[in-house]
Queue: 4 jobs
Job 1
Amino acid sequence: MFHRQSCQPKLTAHSQTKVLPLQGARSAVIAVEGKADDVLRKLTRNSCERVGDLGGLTMLTRPVMTLLSGIVVIAVLRAVPAVGAVKLPAVIGDNMVLQQQQLVPIWGWDDPDMMVTVEMGEVKETAQADKDGKWMVMLPAMSAGGPHLVTIVGSNTISLKNVCVGEVWLCGGQSNMEWTVHDSKGANEEIAAAHHPRIRHIKIPHTTAEKPQSDVKSSGWQICTPESAGKFTAVGYYFARHLQRELKVPVGLIGSNWGGTPIEPWIPANGFTKVPALSEFADNIDKYPVRRGKAIYHKSPLALYNGMINPLTPYALKGVLWYQGESNLGDGMLYHEKMKALIIGWRTAWNRADMPFYFVQLAPYRYKGDPLALPGIWEAQTATLSMQHTGMAVTVDLSDIRPKNKQDVGKRLALWPLAKNYGRTDLVYSGPLYKSMQVENNKVRITFDHVGGGLISRDGKPLSYFAVAGKDQKFATASADIDDDTIVVGADSVSEPVAVRFAWDQEATPNLSNKAGLPASPFRTDEW
């Protein structure tokens, strides 16, 4: 039974009247879309009564002088988009790239209980919308290729054109990831040569949210051309270009990044709760994100995950590229814990514990404040390699807060998945990483992983930025010599060395590399 109460209907859509059947009624039912007062004025001059709501419709009754007594007038309230139409999230659209060799979710919204069919070539899958209108189908694992047409049939039909299947990477972080091709080294030449129709990019606009969102606005997937490439993430573009040349498959980039942001707003709630060292955040998780005035503060925990990452789930990805850390200077090894929370949280969101996560170690730069704050981030980033399915591109040779040479950054990132995920076992994919030390009289022998066929001085000069210390913890500049795949370090003023540091200064640009030309990462053997 509907409760009766007097009402004054207020609607704003254009008038459109349809006669619909109402089960159990003795008269016709008129569905009115429009200004109720205008429509009803044509029907009657008598007062109306509200008898209830049904499926977003306000039901009104009144005697009608020119129609049969007992007619029910239904005024459609349009506070939400019209029902009876398939709606897709922004990340699904024309020109998209779908991940090859994985189950591929395609989802959206329609009327509750509506059967929705998705068809792509010989693949055809059907799902029923739930009570909230959400539906999802899983396309089977497919081989790389395209272009394809994807047809979605529900209350209406949507055709998605020029869809490819290949490799999809999410590009996250702050300004170094958001930095565009237009602003990178050799931009004019690079943009003019950017004829790569099988590379696609979608930019997620800066969006904060109080709660995890199911969608986010976007201008959609863009095909790489000289007209569009200038706005692509530069690191992502050069990564994709190298990957596409090697694999000969389409590559899709999802650019979800925001300059000047720390890591905390990108971490989901369950990321904080799963890392004991971050209990200060986890214990207060219901208080985040915070507001400044009426707006959600974009640097607050959860703010950007809710608005810019959760809406992308569960879009099938190969993995994640991450370039961030400048806004977390001073965190030291706590940044490692935050990286753990980020990686765990995103892998959980995509339900893929083995999802590759490759990141960039920050380049040298003269920051204000503690000159050891940047080495502290380097150490935390290197420590994150202890997590499975991670990798790090070292950039100590590129010296700047935002190196314009994004070509080398992108290529170095691409080496990791080529070796780890795409079967290129012959590749040297990392610069030398500290492994162990052994004291030999008044010298220290350092061993490395990833020597890449041998160690070299990149510029032919003596190795630079090594220091040793004795038990007094006073470091002295040291000489360093290559001995096969090791480095022997010593200083005349330190007769009994116990610790070695390499490039442990924010402006250090050391020349140690492997023969593949990949620079060694800064390290220290002490914890002083």
Job 2
Amino acid sequence: MTYRTKLGSTTAIALALALTGTALQAQEQDTLLDEVVLGYTADGTPITAGDNTTGIDEDDLRAQGGTQSTDDILRTQTSVFTQQNPSNPGVAVNIRGFEGSGRVSTMVDGVPQNYRFTGHAAQGYTYIDENLMAGIDITRGATTTAGGSGIAGSVNFRTLSAMDVVRDQGMGGMVRFSYGDNGADLSAMVAAAYADENFEALFALSGHEANNFVDGDGVAVPNTGKDNWSGLVKLAYHIDDRQSLSFSGLNYNSNFFANSYQQEFYSDTYKLGYMFDAGNGLVNLTANAYFAETQTEYVAGGIWSVGRVMQTRTTGLNLTNISEFAPGAWDVVSINGLDFSRDKLDGERAGVNPADGQSKRFSLFSENIFVNGPWEITAGVRYNSYKVSGDASRGPVDLRYSSVDPKLTVAYQVNDWLQPYVTVSRASRAPTLQETMLGGTHPGGGLGMIANPDLKPERSTGYELGFNIERSNLLQDGDRLSGRVNYYRMDVENYVIATFGFTNSFGQNGAAFVNVPGTSQTSGVEVELNYESAKVDVGLSFTKNDSDMPSQLAGLGTGQYLPDSTWSLRVAGHFLDDKLTVGGQYNYVSGGLYSTPYSGSAVQRDETYELVDIFATYEINDNFVLNAKVSNLFDKTYVPWLADSRNGPGRSVYFGGEMRF
């Protein structure tokens, strides 16, 4: 697997612009812009040399056995985990021990996914069909530019574009299929696309059928089957050689049994984009307007909450402009823009989750990269304004906050392969509607939940010290060693957890979300190394985590602690003129401080587990690729970290392929 390490030397790394989410062909850029802007996210936000980012592309997804599990892919990345509920098809991303309620900003094609849920589960999920994915971009730490609303990082799931199907011009089609023997059953996707110099179009449909899987002891794990189906439409029009318009629409549907109820779920995401490049180096503008709607309904199951409906609507826009100029001895790339979004809740019989209220976020940002010889300095600042409003059971809630969050990275190119760097940053996260306006009682009565109209935003001060390496021709001509080794620390003020026996400003007493006094701290070491040669690829990720963060309260969220350490080692060999790739992956998860969705407090969990996967891909020709994977090769019985108490899947065999025509 090839990971694109984004904090890189501007003089040592050969950098290429990635396609934007509008699927428009990359335009030529000046040399400096090529060096400090390493690519673009789906909303046109540039990925700069000051970002601690990992990119997973289509080949990486296929190497995982045909994009079978987004959870499995993310759990092999440095300092990345997921809050896993095998009954729920959603993905809840954890970075550096932070998850839920927007601590990790999660997007699909650059559109924020702000669906939240309070219960014995993750505090928010993102729903994405693996068959429609073209890649994943992961950023650790504070983000200054568009999408920088979290304190721990961001994840953007990129979907297919017309150029992923056609690859040139004219008509084209794609079929993806897979079959798994352990509950995964059948998955298939069909796409049709057209592209020429002026117009691009993509239409895709995907479906999954899954039954309950069995664990390493051969025992069926209940309620792990689910049926999902999705549709994707993308259109792009090149007005001229400087302007482009784009549209994307994504629909996701699922039936599953989670939280004691059968649920009918849908998620719709729409985006309209505009790009303008004046050609003068000063105006290179990307604008996006978007709308997302997510809803779940409890249709059967338990006796208390059948008929529950929870809906979140998100509308917003972002603007990003990139300028390039050279005052004196310094070359400068300046990235400036704004973010605006609004979440509005609706629903019926929503229980402790609010079914009314809205939150608004507005941000202005500027990130400036200064380059002079071996020196590279990235100075950014983000102004944030938040508003949370609604009606709690005893009165109105109207919270307003603002913050100014700077970020500074200083890097020095020691030689042609080594670049030490240091980063200092601030980031803020506003309380969500679900945290602020908690209410109602536990199903069946008893424990009362109350709002906290005085909840404050979390504020994180981050430090990162490390070095980036990029060495070619290390062991043989044409090989390449790249990666990053770094230490990080996050000091978080006003960390939000739930607690019992709180009295709010309305005079109510009960369970509520509150700010932890003082500063909570987490730190760790991250290693991400990749070696590529004509015959062998090796990837290593390692995370050492040390957290003093308070524990989340079960039932109003769930545990977020990372294991004390994780290892992932991947080795792949290329044969038959690179047509055949065969490899394996070893994953180690240690013990550590742990809490489950149903435990009252965190305890030390000493059980470790190790998993081995093997995989293969074979390119029959340029348009037809077969892939196979055996996960949990030795059929181990284990309980995944950051999951409920149910065992993970036993040995599972997958077979699939991808065909273009």
Job 3
Amino acid sequence: MYMFAQIPERSMHYLRWVLTIAWLILIFSLFFDPISAKLTDYNNLSSPLRVDPDVCIKVQGVCLPQSSYQLGAPIFWGIVVPSGVFILLVFGHELWRRICPLSFLSQIPRALGKQRQKKQTDKSGKVRSEIYKVPKNSWLARNYLYLQLSLLFLGLCGRILFYNSDRLVLGSFLIFTILAAIFVGYWYGGKSWCNYFCPMSPVERIYGEPRGLLNSTAHEDSRSGITQSMCRIVREDGSEQSACVACQSPCIDIDAERAYWDGITQSDRQWLYYGYFGLVFGYFIYYYLYAGNWDYYFSGAWAHDENQLEALFKPGFYLGGNQIPIPKLVAVPLTLAICTFLGYFLGKKVENAYKVYRIRQKSPLPTEIIRHRVFTVGTFLIFNFFFIFGGRPFINLLPKFWHYFASILAAVLSSLWLYRTWIRDPSRYQREGLAGKLRKQLRKLNLDTAKYLDRRSLETLDADEVYVLAKILPDFTHQNCLKAYKAVLKETLEEGYTDFGHSLEILQQMRLELTITEAEHQAILTELGVESAELLDPEKQYSREDWLRLQSYRDALLESLLVTWKKDPDRQVGSELLEVLTGKSSREAIKHLLTELPAAGTETVESLRRQYRITGQEEEAILHRPPADQLWQNIARAFQVFDRLSFSSQSDREQQERILLERFRLFDSDGSGQISLEELKACLQAIEPGVTDKKIEAMLQRADTGRDNQISFQEFRDLLHQFHQ
């Protein structure tokens, strides 16, 4: 399931370059191609692509002139476009977005640091520059699906009328699309072209939501904060770091299924799914309505028709052997518009009929499930309908076996997708997501689970098995249960999965499984409010995407400071960096730290603030009092700055050991060889007087694998290495 999710971003980056260069070469061939026409020359008897002058392909009762042609347009329409649809349904949206050349090119302004900026004054009166984003309540943010579907409609009309076969018009259209994507990348931050403008985006949603056949599942992915096709960058050490700027919420790149369930009851989804069904149906049917036969389409003559532009004002329909005097320029949008509206109204009728049927069967379903199932069946049908036509001009050149193979492959894969998708529902999605968080808490409690798993790991358990395990573990007492529930609740609040007003509803399934009462839930909420008041403050609660934006900024800032320190270890940045990382009066510490940076380093920090749209308050919040894991991770990365040594030799490894021992002795004030809770408190509170005892105790528990309430040098070293890796 995770074959592409596990591919490193650096490898995908190289693949994007290869695909982008190949696409640009294809576009160039539309303007200049002295080679491929030789493959279609009727005298080239060895070529399967040769034109046969003896074959009559009739269009409105007249044989179409046959001559050699260049292959750029046929390859684009007959191979590239069908491949995209196939990838989306089988491998998921996450693969397509990670390899799409147009998405890649739209990020050129971001890579060059040349994006539109505006001045913003925060509550402290400080003026900062930030990258423009599409405003959340703007017309575009509310109506982008209608815009994208309209652009897709115009694009399909344009195909039939202007650039199916005219190479110069097609090449110009593709270049215009690239320039538009780059301009949007300059005008708005993030993946705004993909999310708000790209005409391919409706197709991505239809086939990629709620999930492709083989894609990963973001809500169950506890391996890292980077999921599916979300924006990311590669650090110097090769590890990956989120680069999310929260350009859209909910974001299909972060969690496609969450975006699907969040918007499924909105009316624009009906237009998207039902309208697309009718649009695709109308697009392919028009070839028959225009030519009067199917030979015109399946021969591929439409992709090299020399008379395409000349036919704009000629009859656009040919029915019953008679030309209908409606110009093709009118007939095409008329046909596609009628089919789109018919698809929309037919879809709504089917949806209502299914709803009534379930009521009559005395098993009514929520609107989300009704609509999801109709969407799913519609997607299954239109995918198979598409591949009756998609790529056929090339497939038909192959032996008969491959004709049947292509049809069977599309039917089998789409049937598997239908089976996998039909059973999805919002409650199952939430149950799986919360089970993933419970799995993480069970792992942190270090309970003896081995004898109950029969050599399996916690990661291989499905949601139901995780809950069963939690019920049968003798060491998972009710106190431990409440402790785990509290950690899950805190995580869901911190990371924007829910807010305190909806937490009772969102975590209902978990409470039932763990026999936790509503009163206990409210008591835990009260505890969290005392420990971290901002968790329950409506003004300080963030969406999942905004939380990722803030974490992305924090990681990027840390990375830039560490890089600066590595390049100039003698500069007085180290001690200041450790103070900032552990939250010491963050805003003042950051200001002081910036004075220690070279000009290039200061500009990097300011650039990050602009890119992630960070206010002074947000900066202070995310750098202040990080969780126990984050504290240890920050300390690990700060100490491991000495990895500028190669450690390839024994002397280097010994030097690393000495350095870590020196850092260990900073905590071990009595020289006992163990860091006690009191010593850990003394050291951390000297750096950050406001750090709570509970947070320090959590740090001790995280490091203390021997369970003797103290940290040995071995535990200290292992933990820092673990987080460094």
Job 4
Amino acid sequence: MINFLLSIVDICNIFIKTIRFSVINIPLENSSIRIIRMLGFLNPFYIINRKIPPGQRITSFLESLGPMFIKFGQLLSTRSDVVPAEIIGFLNTLTDQCKPFPASDARRIIENSLNIRLEDVFKNFEETPLAAASLAQVHRAQLIDSSDQIVIKVLRPGIHQKVHRNIGVIKIAGSLVNMFYKESHRLKLKEVIGDYERTIKQELDLKVEAANTSTTRKNFSDSDLLYIPKVYWDHTAVDVLTLEEIDGLACTDTSSMDKLGIDRKVLAENGVKIFLDQVFRDNFFHADMHPGNIFVSKKNIHTPSYIAIDCAIVGSLTQEDQYNLARMLQATLKQDYHRLAKLFIGTGWVNADTNQSDLEQTLRATCEPIFSKPLSEIEFGKLLLYLFDSTRQFGLSVQPSLILLQKTLIHIEGMGREIYSDLDFWGLAEPYLDEWVSNQYSPTKLKEFLEQNKYDLMDKATSLPGDVFDLLDNIKFLASDGKKNADLVANMQLALQKQRKWQNLTIITLLGIIMILLINKL
């Protein structure tokens, strides 16, 4: 009952602040009917706020509602499929920093979560946190049985209940928007709020972040380009994460890089290589690579490298999306708008009935002004943002992980250009993508696929003939029901019968290849 009453208070607060910051006026401003636009002046605050850009109003509105809504705004900034580019620019300024909670609370949470006395496991525990955010804060310490310097990330007290209540409030607010704003379907609020709920619930389980950190560390265990801190699993739980402390330069501290003699050109290029390897080699990428989470190693001066922390948010693409992304990047790099338009339609990223010529023209109009600049000045991440923004009129619908990747690319590229202003992303990406796409059809790749899936292939191959016969029997049954679809069914039956001998031959061939592989292994 108390939570229900608090939720009502929260909803009233949200409504009052939509008026205070004139967020409620934004749909009215976009109306083509003058009378509806004039209704906006019924809000007295609109007279003050009407010259403020809508994106700035939304950002101020979210900041006034507190940390949970700031995180929601940060998620919205990754959804270029539903949020216009000019609003995303403002949302990107949201920062997730909060006042720290008392160290005594942190001690209590650590002891309860790990079922220990803090003094029995840790020493030199620093009361003042290194950093404090909306969900957690971080303290420095040492392990008592070693000299290892570690950091302990601790969730805020009562954060699970607070997040649960805020999600409920956001869902109610979304339902109200859907009820009263007829164009709300374009915003995909249900999908966006569901995405936020999944993301923030993952961040509330620090074991998930620990697992992501360990996976990324394994992926780069043989690499000199990226270092990921070690996870101390014995001292990690849902509310507590213990990690190796890292020592690096802020990736924006170029003067210190120059003092150490770090080659900033090579460093920036290595950042692009790390991004490409994560997306295409590992298919597991750090999706929160803003400057606060990325540092430059002080150790590898001759092979400039990075250190990454906070792997709470990661992304992964389906094999199909991974391949389509590579083809999209290739087509964009080569300015092949015909192929790009076909790809957008063929992959289902835009409506199936989209006129290809219209889409091609839109893509060309979006890209050509950007390509008129020198390559060193073109920001590829922002180009993708503009591409997605321009195709929303054709019903853009892509996987959230793909949008998340585009946001990550903006961070990587922006960071790289801050380190080295003439970074040539294109020169690094194009040969990498060409090689990756060609390798997908190489004999080695086919062999790997067969080795990894040999048992599934054998199972499906043995059941396929029976499935074909069942399908033929069903077609005969449909044909016996009447003459309405008799011609169509007869043609399907004839085609399947002709294909049957080729299917059997294919099955035998696959089985032969698999047997050869098995024999070679033995």
